[in-house]
Amino acid sequence: MTKRQKRLFLLMCVLLGAFAVSPVSYGMHIMEGYLPVTMSVCWFAVCIPFWVLGFNSIKKNVEAHGKSISILAISGAFIFVLSSLKIPSVTGSCSHMTGTGLAAILFGPTAVSILGVIVLLFQAILLAHGGLTTLGANTFSMAIAGPIVSWLIYKGLDKAGVKKGVSVFFAAAIGDLFTYCVTAFQLAIAYPSQDGGVAASLVKFLGVFAPTQVPLAVVEGLLTSAIILGLESYASSELTDIGFLNGSQKA
Amino acid sequence: MQYQNLIVFLIACILAMLLVVLLGAKKLHERRERLAHSHDHSHEDPCHGHSGHGHGFGKLKHDHSSGVFSIDYYAYISAMRGWNPAFKVFFSLLVLILCILFNSIYVSLFVLITMGFLIVYRGKIPFHQYFSTLTIPIVFVIVGSITIAIGFSREPMGEYNLHLFFFYIYTSKESLMKMANLMLKAMGAVSALYLMTLSTPSGEIISVMRKVHVPKLFVELMSMIYRYIFVIMETQRKMKDSAESRLGYVDFKTAVKSFSGTASNLLVVSLKKANAYYDALISRGYNGELLFLERKKALDAEQILLGCSYILLMCGVFFACRIPPVV
Lengths: 251, 327
What we know:
The complex is a heterodimer. Chain A is mostly helical. Chain A has helices at 3-21, 37-64, 68-84, 100-107, 109-127, 135-159, 164-190, 197-234, 236-241; strands at 86-87, 95-96. In chain A, helix 1 packs parallel to helix 8 (197-234). Chain B has a domain at 215-295. Chain B is built from 12 helices and 3 strands; from the N terminus they run H-H-H-H-H-H-H-E-E-E-H-H-H-H-H. In chain B, a hairpin with a 2-residue loop joins strand 2 and strand 3 (167-171). In chain B, helix 4 (85-102) packs parallel to helix 12.
């Protein structure tokens, strides 16, 4: 290795380190063109059953109460706006919420699979975050896997009698972390490392995205629980519209 | 480097650009006249009221770091807006998929350069604006690609090794090539996507989706969400301004409190609006389908010619520059 090569290589590693610790917002959207075609198709196929389930539940809802289409639409727009806002952070850099935990707790995992794919589509079209070929993979991690985990944790802790603020915090934070693990896994199976295979690659991706995603998950948990508590204290009549306080989680 | 490949690649690029320029020149005169006659193009836009907000956002805050809707803004002012929307959607999707399928450095570079040229020259999007849009995914490209290229181990294993106290970071020429290929492929794909998003407003993309029979309820939800986004964004901006003017974001703790307060209040206000909008829709005879009057944008010979020859050129570059693909 010549001196110049060594310097370049060092520069590359420093660059990686610098970008990895700068909390980047939409870091967990796999960008357009980043997955091979077979992988993209596979992730779309994985999503299809969830989409069918979600679509049918929304359809039934809209047929029963016509008004719910307007409520669903405004909820989707709300998730989009929430995820495009800069959230407060200690360092003053800009990062964003994923909103998956909040959406799952408010609207239930079935509706979120459809709302989520629309939000991700608009994020790709309007904000250039994520992409069309990677839509399947992104939907699976952010609108299916994350919300389901959040919702299960929320329900479980709620049944166990944990205080609402606490259970929402854990649901949102762990849902966020799970989303990040799924994305790292998606990247790892698309690009296994040469000598360690998928496992080594997974460790690399988890490690590189951890400095951003772990603090972000904590902040997201704090914000989500504050939002839910705020809603509960002065919006119970609106919340019955989306079936939050009834215990029926269907939007 | 293989000089033959380079030459083929350069010729293809120049041909594609010439094509764009020549086909444009023929039409330019005609279009200027048409534009002079009808400068009220806002009328054809069914969601004028809401997109108006988008314009305001775009104009006020140009750079992508703060302006959330700069892409939406440029989609409305693009000179390629008069093109047939279905053509733009399918053309850019086809180029996007081919770019990923071919998986060749030359094709990716070809797409990156010529798509950029098409968007800037024909779409009349300012170059620095296009460039700053291209840099949105740059962090993901850098972090993701370098992660793929390097490995960690206890012993020096690769061609290039870097010793860091306990372990080595290593890489090889092959993985560096793979990294470059992936970066270019992703950027090429992104620029193909931009051809669609920087020239076609979302309303038109949604109407193309309706034409290819995406489920009605899904399309309906999409068009409603698109409009609501601007309403909620506006409400949020006002709430944030008033919180900020009262020192609501002065330190981390207060900021968390204001942010979550704003967010939960935003949801309440939005839900109230959803009720009002539904009443408004019903009172105008809404029965589950929003239909908009659209201006017919004919698919003319220029677009077909450009599309076909572009795809042919792409295939040409691929077959002529066939280096063993780096998997």
